Amino acid sequence: MSDLTVYLESDARRPELRTSDAALIAAHLAHAGILCERWNADTPLPADSDADAVLHAYAVPIERLKQARRFLTADVVRITPQTDGIAALRAKFLDEHTHDEDEARFFVEGAGAFYIHLKARVFRVVCEAGDLLSIPAGTPHWFDMGPKPRFTTIRFFGRPDGWVATPTGDAIAARFPPFEPEAAQAA
Q1: pLDDT digits (tens, 9 = 90+) for 75-100
Q2: For residues 149 and 180, what is the distance between their CA atoms, to the nearest angstrom?
Q3: Cα–Cα distance between 146 and 178 in angstroms, integer?
Q4: What is the CA radius of gyration of the chain?
Q5: C-alpha span between 132 and 107 (Å, rounded)
Q6: How much is the pTM?
Q7: How far apart are CA 127 and CA 109, in angstroms?
Q8: Is there a contact between 95 and 175 (Cβ–Cβ < 8 Å)?
Q9: Which residue from 47, 49, 124, 154 puts its CA 20 to 30 A from 30's CA?
Q10: Distance CA 139, CA 122 (A)
Q11: In the chain, where does DSSP find H-type helix?
């Protein structure tokens, strides 16, 4: 189940809100223009499934979202603790940045955390299998896959060349707790 934690940007120690209620998460994020939906992610995928197999397994909801949100393409990212260069890959997304188009991801397996910086608050959205999150273009955010990442996501793009990250230069991400999948599941 996904999890939403809302902090004041000035205090990462005391959350204002923490919930795993999917309806409350979706409603709270919708006020900020962020799409959060629960999709069915129960299609079994072998560990060696390639991107084409994942895209085929979820072809119907992928096509529906592409049509609804005018995305042109979708791809698959599968990260495991055995993926080469994990530390560098994780670090690449830990600084706050924006994109010129919406960033949309559907989590097929595993988990990761988006931190979205809006109006003096930081929304930490832990996405797990079955979660679709779409962050509007221009919204400051960062992503933490955790120290031992394990996830498969389908990413959606409005441009054939994908997203281009533009750093904000704000060091806010360093003040917030890193994503620890085991801790998120225990809470």
Answers
A1: 999 998 889 999 999 999 999 999 99
A2: 9
A3: 7
A4: 16
A5: 6
A6: 0.92
A7: 10
A8: no
A9: 154
A10: 11
A11: 22-30, 51-57, 59-69, 86-92, 181-186
Determine the length of the chain: 187
What's the N-to-C CA distance of the chain in angstroms?
12
Report the pLDDT value the prediction gives residue 1, as an integer from 0 to 100.
57
Main-chain dihedrals φ then ψ at residue 59, nearest 5 degrees: -60, -40
Of 36-45, 80-89, 117-126, the range with the highest mean pLDDT is 117-126
CA distance 178 to 37: 24
How many other C-beta atoms lie within 10 A of the C-beta of residue 187?
11
Sign of CA dihedral 24, 174, 156, 111: negative
pLDDT at 183: 52
Confidence at residue 132, expressed as pLDDT on a 0 to 100 scale: 96
Q: What is the pLDDT of residue 45?
A: 84
Degrees, nearest 5: CA angle 153-44-107: 20
Q: What is the pLDDT of residue 48?
A: 82
Report residue 130: phi and psi, to 5°: 100, -10
Q: Which amino acid is at 148?
A: K
CB within 8 A of 37, min separation 6: which ones? 26, 131, 132
Tell me the longest C-alpha to C-alpha distance in the chain: 44
**Residue 134 β-bridge partners:** 35, 104
